[in-house]
Backbone:
């Protein structure tokens, strides 16, 4: 029996970047997130909050996407790696129900364990 090779943080970050460049965020969640992933937005964020577990994190993202009335553009930087973590910069220009047009500039931090993303944290 052959052991399954676990992805390194570098491999996870590389695949993350491939999908992010195509704006395939739900594919990132499906393919790279652990079943026990945790997602944290800044305390008192008007946009989103805290979610735990792959299904709840997906719902958090779906709920935000449903509020987007117009997508004006977005960019994601290349990942910066350090140990089991990587971070990307993300700029997004969207019109959001209840908020109007917003420019969201954030740092997105990810922790990788056993070849999967176990934590995502947003700073904006």
Residues:
């Amino acid at each position: 029996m052959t052991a399954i090779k676990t992805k390194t943080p570098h491999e996870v970050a590389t695949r993350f970047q491939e999908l992010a460049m195509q704006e395939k965020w739900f594919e990132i969640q499906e393919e790279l997130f652990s079943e026990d992933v945790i997602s944290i937005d800044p305390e008192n964020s008007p946009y989103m909050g805290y979610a735990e577990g792959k299904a709840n994190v997906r719902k958090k993202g779906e709920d935000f996407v449903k509020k987007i009335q117009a997508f004006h553009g977005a960019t994601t930087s290349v990942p910066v790696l350090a140990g089991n973590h990587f971070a990307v910069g993300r700029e997004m220009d969207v019109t959001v129900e209840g908020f109007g047009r917003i420019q969201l500039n954030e740092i997105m931090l990810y922790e990788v364990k056993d070849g999967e993303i176990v934590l995502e944290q947003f700073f904006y």
